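Q: What would this chain look like folded?
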Amino acid sequence: MCPVQHHHAHIASCMADCGLKNEKVIACAFDGTGFGEDGTIWGGEFLLSDYQGFQRVGYLRPVPLIGAEKAIRQPWRLAVFWLEDVFGKDIWQKKMALFKKIRHRDWQLLRRLPKANFNSPLTSSAGRLFDAVASIILGQPEADYEASLAIELERLANGFCEKSQGYPFDFIFKDGCFIIDSGPIFRNIVKDLEQNLDRRKIAYSFHLSVAKMIQRGCLFLSKKTGIKKIVLSGGVFQNRLLTKMVKDLLSKQRLSLLLSQRVSCNDSGISLGQVVIAGIKGRA
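A: My prediction, written as structure tokens:
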């Protein structure tokens, strides 16, 4: 049996679907869950990749998935982690719609889990970032199914027809990689909610912020490596609004953007990448 890393397979699937030969590309793999080589849960990854292998060169800031899989159905856990991380315990003094539907005493127990290193794996998942933001903006603590709140957030953002600059984020370097920290995004979302701004604009601004994260990461890597081909894959790119925003931003940088055409970008299309990678490794 030939082991194939989850996000490498996502990228290889898109490359094969687009008819690429074994060449280096800049890859952005954004999804909900995939085990990483460092023992954490990946899902917000920037890779330099071909069929033979990959190098992780950037990622979203990892945060604890408190309660592991249970946090996927209860995204309020990640939402509150981010809020306390940005504002401290003073966040509970703010009038947040989400707080009306959760019990503070539940959080007082759950917040202890990461410190005890219990059932709280670190995750860099873009899917979980969407869940946390959606929980805050929509004021909904739980999801009916995985990504249901993120789907509702996209629907809300699609109703906004004016201009937005998006929200700032931090782009930092550590151990040869860049890390994108979404903390400033949460700070500005709360500010806009407190000012009773149109939630459609807040949702749209968040989508644009994620698109700009991708633009900045890919542009940085392109300037560093000279690679012009950008591959996007993973379930997050089923979000048509986000994908269109990324297309529009990258087209201005004269970069070649590749997206899956016939094979799904989510996990249902991953087997193509697994087969291609295994075939090449088997011939090596």
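The mean pLDDT is 96.
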